[in-house]
Write a structure and sequence with these properties.
Distance between the termini: 78 Å
Number of strands: 4
Main location: membrane
Radius of gyration: 29 Å
Shape: globular
Helix content: 55-70%
Order of helices and strands: HHEHHEHHHHHHHEEHHHHHHHHH
Largest sheet: 2 strands, antiparallel
Subcellular location: Membrane
Strand order of the largest sheet: 1-2
Number of helices: 20
GO biological process, one term: regulation of intracellular pH
Transmembrane segments: 12-32, 145-163, 183-201, 231-249, 269-285, 331-350, 356-376, 424-443
Oligomer: single chain
Membrane topology: Multi-pass membrane protein
C-alpha cells in the first residue's frame, strides 16, 4: 500500500483537497440536472450495488470476529489432565542488548529486571520472549475472551432478528409488540452489555477518546487544503476527486432509488437534487474539519425505511398483517443525527459496549437488508425443481433459462465488483459501478423488452402479480359469458 509520507505529502491536507474538489463537482452535477440520469438506474443496477454493500457488511463483521482469534489465541492441543502444569512466563530475549536490559530498571528505579513478573504489555514493549506450554506465538493463550466474543456476536445477531419479528408473535398487546420490534437493536445492545457486565469476561470494548478534541495533537480543528504539500497537489487532487464523485453520485442515487421504490408506497415526492446538494455541502464541511465524509449509507437507509413501515392490525386469528406504507416524517432522521452528535458526550457509556456486540449488529443489518432483493430469489431457483418454485410473476412470462441467464449476468457483475474492491485495482471501482448502467443497456440486445419488463421493472412484484391475476380473472369471466351466449 502506498504511504504518502514516503513522498513527503501530508495525508490530511491532500484528503481535504480531494474532498473540496469532490464537493465542487457534486454541486456542478446538481446545477446541470445530472440527477435526471437516475432514470437509467434500474433494478439490475441497484440490486447489484445494494447486494455488494450488504455483503461488505456481512464480510467485515465476520472478518472482525476472526481477527479477535488472532488477538486472543487459543491452544488447540490442550490436554485436560495437564491443566495444572500449563504456564506462560516472560523471558529475556537471547540477543538483548545491555541498553534494553537496563531500560526497565532505569524506568522503575530497581536494580534488576524481573522478567517473570512482567505483564504481557511490558514484556512486548521490552522485546521479551514468551515461554511455556500456555504460550502462543503472540502471547499467552486466552480462550475465554474469544469464546465469549463468539457468544456475544451470534447472540446479538439472533436476538436482534427475534425481537424485530416480535410484532408477529401472539404474546402481549399489539402496542407492546410493536414497541419491542421498533427498538429491537437498542434493546439487544442493552441486554448484551448487561450480560457482559454480569459474566465479567474481559471482552474487547469500544475504544473512544476521553476528551472532546482532535485525536491527534499535531492537528487542529480545521485542516488546510495545502498544508505542507506542494502547490500542484491542489490541482492534482481533481483526478481522484473525479473518481470519488462518480462513486458518491452512484451511491446517493442508487440509495435514493431503493428508498423511493413504488413498493414502499411513499406519498411525498423525491428530492434527488436536494439530497445531492446536502451531500455536497457536508462533504466540504467534513473535509475541512478532517471528519469522515457524509455520504448516503445504503444499508442504514434501507434499515431506516424498514423500521418505519406501517402494517394493518389483524382482525382474525392467524391473519397476516397487510403493509400500508411508510411513516413519512422528519423527526426520526433529525433525532438520529442529534443523538449521533450527542454521543461525543457519552463516551463513559459507550466504553461499556463490547466490540463483538457491534459486529453482531453489523451482521444483522447486512442480512436483514438482503430481504426483498430479487437477485437472491432468482439465485435460489438454480437449485430448486420446477414443481417447488414459487409462483413468481416473471416465471409466468419469461422462460426459465432466460431467467437464469439474466441472473448469471447480474451475479457476474457482483463478483467482479467484489474482486475489484478487494484487490489493488480498487481505484477503478467507481468506474465499474458506473459501468453497471451500460451493461444493463447491452442486455437490450439479448432480451426482449417484454422479458426485461418482467425481470428488471421497478414495479413491485406483488403489485404486478395482483394486476396479472385480475387480468386473467377478467379474461376468464369474458370467456365464460361468451360460452353461455353460444358465441
Amino acid at each position: 500500500m502506498m504511504n504518502l509520507n514516503d513522498y513527503g505529502l501530508c495525508y490530511l491536507s491532500l484528503r481535504t483537497s480531494i474532498g473540496l474538489w469532490t464537493a465542487f463537482l457534486c454541486l456542478l452535477l446538481v446545477a446541470t440536472d445530472a440527477s435526471s440520469m437516475v432514470r437509467y438506474i434500474t433494478r439490475f443496477t441497484e440490486e447489484a450495488f445494494a447486494s455488494l454493500i450488504c455483503i461488505i457488511f456481512i464480510y467485515e463483521a465476520l472478518q472482525k470476529l476472526v481477527h479477535l482469534g488472532e488477538q486472543f489465541p487459543i491452544n488447540m492441543h490442550n490436554q485436560l489432565d495437564n491443566l495444572t502444569v500449563y504456564t506462560c512466563r516472560c523471558s529475556p530475549p537471547a540477543n538483548a542488548s545491555t541498553d534494553t536490559l537496563h531500560q526497565w530498571s532505569n524506568t522503575n528505579a530497581t536494580s534488576d529486571i524481573r522478567w517473570d513478573e512482567l505483564t504481557v504489555k511490558a514484556c512486548k514493549e521490552f522485546g521479551g520472549v514468551f515461554e511455556g506450554s500456555a504460550c502462543g506465538p503472540l502471547g499467552p493463550y486466552v480462550p475465554d475472551v474469544l469464546f465469549w466474543s463468539v457468544i456475544l456476536f451470534f447472540t446479538t445477531f439472533f436476538l436482534s432478528s427475534f425481537l424485530k419479528q416480535f410484532k408477529t408473535k401472539q404474546y402481549f398487546p399489539t402496542k407492546v409488540r410493536s414497541t419491542i420490534s421498533d427498538f429491537a437493536v437498542f434493546l439487544t445492545i442493552t441486554i448484551m452489555v448487561l450480560l457482559d457486565h454480569l459474566v465479567g469476561v474481559p471482552s474487547p470494548k469500544l475504544h473512544v477518546p476521553d476528551r472532546f478534541q482532535p485525536t491527534s495533537s499535531s492537528r487542529g480543528w480545521l485542516i488546510s487544503p495545502l498544508g505542507t504539500n506542494p502547490w500542484w497537489t491542489l490541482l492534482a487532487a481533481a483526478v481522484p476527486a473525479l473518481l470519488c464523485t462518480i462513486l458518491i453520485f452512484m451511491d446517493q442515487q442508487i440509495t435514493a432509488v431503493i428508498v423511493n421504490r413504488k413498493e414502499n408506497k411513499l406519498k411525498k415526492g423525491c428530492g434527488y437534487h436536494l439530497d445531492l446538494l446536502v451531500v455536497a455541502v457536508m462533504l466540504g464541511v467534513c473535509s475541512v474539519m478532517g471528519l469522515p465524509w457524509f455520504v448516503a449509507a445504503t444499508v442504514l437507509s434501507i434499515s431506516h425505511v424498514n423500521s418505519l413501515k406501517l402494517e394493518s392490525g389483524c382482525a382474525a386469528p392467524g391473519e397476516q398483517p397487510r403493509f400500508l406504507g411508510v411513516r413519512e416524517q422528519r423527526v426520526t432522521g433529525f433525532v438520529i443525527f442529534l443523538l449521533m452528535g450527542c454521543s461525543v458526550f457519552m463516551t463513559s457509556a459507550l466504553k461499556l459496549i463490547p466490540m463483538p456486540v457491534l459486529y453482531g449488529v453489523f451482521l444483522y443489518m447486512g442480512v436483514s437488508s438482503l430481504k426483498g432483493i430479487q437477485l437472491f430469489d432468482r439465485i435460489k431457483l438454480f437449485c430448486m425443481p420446477a414443481k417447488h418454485q414459487s409462483d413468481l410473476i416473471y416465471l409466468r412470462y419469461v422462460p426459465l433459462w432466460k431467467v437464469h441467464a439474466f441472473t448469471c449476468v447480474q451475479l457476474t457483475c457482483l463478483i467482479v465488483l467484489w474482486t475489484i474492491k478487494a484487490s489493488a485495482a480498487a481505484v477503478v471501482f467507481p468506474m465499474m459501478v458506473l459501468a453497471l448502467v451500460f451493461i444493463r443497456k447491452l442486455l437490450d440486445f439479448c432480451f426482449t423488452k417484454r422479458e426485461l419488463s418482467w425481470l428488471d421493472d421497478l414495479i413491485p412484484e406483488s403489485k404486478k402479480k395482483k394486476e396479472d391475476d385480475k387480468k386473467k380473472e377478467g379474461e376468464g369471466g369474458e370467456t365464460y359469458n361468451r360460452s353461455a351466449l353460444g358465441v
